Each structure stands twice: as structure tokens, then as C-alpha cells.
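note to self: dont lose this again. the chain is below, predicted strucutre after it. 148 aa total, dont forget to put it in the shared folder this time
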Amino acid sequence: MTEPLAARVNEARPEGTIGMWIVLVFGVTSIANALWMLAGPMHWYTDIPVAVPDTGPFNPHFVRDVGGAFLTAGISLVWAFFSPRYRFPLVVAGSIFLSAHAGVHVFDTLRGALGHDHWLLDLPGVYLPGILLPWIALRMAREEMPDH
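---
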């Protein structure tokens, strides 16, 4: 018999239930973004409301490659939500690409390759996952450390 979803989610301490719901939301949105990138790269490039054309010319192969990275991150995060036993490494794995992706956006905006409007445009889908997911993983790691 499987244990109820709420019991599995609550097993993650110290980030608690809210942290795991954040993980799930970023996982599901990463998967949705990935599927859009893989199925319709040109549609994604022109229609996602974050000014992707500002980053350079359209390249369908590259969009699909990045879609694969979003899919990997998203699956890791959704899996983490449902699997307390493997939660920490899955959150770490899911956050690596999303944090690196945020770092690239910071670098490009600071050096002027992207306009300053990208600080706000990229906040919900790039910067928040890149900041919150490692924070959740660090809190999980701290909870697992023995007291000294």
C-alpha cells in the first residue's frame, strides 16, 4: 500500500511542504516549457513572452537541445516531489541546469548583451528557479548533517 501524498511530501524537512510545492511547480513548468520547445521551437522562440529573440537568431536545433535540458530538470524535480528517498539528489540534479541558466542570463544582462528589461522579464522563469531551488537543496543538506 502506498502512503498518502501529503505524508510523502511532508517527509522533506526542513524546507517543509511549501518547499516541495515550489519544487513541483518549477518541475511542471520546466516540463511544459520543454515540451513546447521540443514540439514547436519556432513558435516557442517567437511567442514565449520573455523576448527570447533578444538572445540571438533562431536555431531550431539549439532550442530543442535546451528543451532537452529543461525536460531533464523538470523530470528530476517532479520525481523529487514524489520520492522522499531520493529527494535531495534529485533536487540538486534539477537545480543544476536551472541555476546555470540563470547565471548565463545574469552574465549576459550585466555585460549588456541583454537589455536591463530582462532583469524583470527573466525573474519568474529564470531567476526564481535558479535561486530558490539551490536554497531548498541547501536547507535539505543542512537538515541531514549531523550536529557537531
